[in-house]
Write a structure and sequence with these properties.
It is a single chain. The chain has 8 helices and 11 strands. By secondary structure, the chain is α+β, with helices and mostly antiparallel strands. The protein folds into 3 domains: about 80 residues, Alpha-Beta Plaits, CATH 3.30.70; about 100 residues, no CATH class; about 90 residues, Distorted Sandwich (Calcium-transporting ATPase, cytoplasmic transduction domain A). The strands form 2 sheets. Strands 5, 6, 7, 8, 9, 10 and 11 form a 7-stranded antiparallel β-sheet that branches. Strands 1-2-4-3 form a 4-stranded antiparallel β-sheet, covered by helices on one side. α3 runs antiparallel to α6 and α4 crosses α6. The chain is elongated and about 85 Å long.
Length: about 290
Amino acid sequence: MKFKIVYDKPCRIRFRCGNYAIPKEYEESIRFYISTSSFVKEVDVTSINGGILVMYKKGFRDKVIELVKNLNINTLAPMTEKREYGIKEIDKEFKDSLLKISLKRVFFKAFVPNPIATALTIYNSAKYIKNGLKAFSECKLNVDVLDSASIVACFARKNFKTASTVMFLLSISGLLEKYTRERTKAVLTDSLVIKTDKVWLVTSGEDVEIPITELQVGDEIRIHTGNVIPIDGIVTDGEATVNEASITGESLPVMKVADTSVYVGTVIEEGSVVVKVRELSSNTKISKII
């Protein structure tokens, strides 16, 4: 797939493939395809502007670029079901991972001889001690320091079984933390994302209804009473009272006139405005909130 890199920071990179490069029905297919790689943490795919945001493990930037470069939509099957942003997949992955860790622990205690168990415990402790030393060298007293200190204390007392138990509990807590973070983000996305399919584009003649996927930055759209604002933009004409509770939590509506900003996810309670598109879905304020 052809693309250009529009954002490139450590462990976070955003690709822009073009406005018509990603059909909407392939968003979830592409997200699932990329997220199956072991070095990928999170993926966000937006058909509106052909954006692919990938958060990956340190040291795998080149592999992420190669993965997106080799992406071929023709080899993927569209997912036409109502999007749930991977909630079911997140739940399944958590249950599978928890079962795997638990069974591994049972096998370790029941069948591995003590000398080998001790050697494996010392080997597995390396990553915890390494993280603790790194944090301590940076003058940070955080959880990594406390974790490594507890493991070292067990080693000092030659209590390797306790050290193994501590690391088992740490792996469970890490799994729970990851699950909570990913599922919370998925639920937030599912509840806050805007599901508008079409908008009224203002032209020199009359307003024309177009798919939101064809909307470009700089276009002007007309939004009427009762409609959800589907983009971030600037009011260029008209006036309306807007409920911004989804953004600010304020229940009282706010008057919007020319040259004032409006945000995706807010609702026009009364009035009609023409809004110039400033940001599409992947860069909107509500996306940053999520």
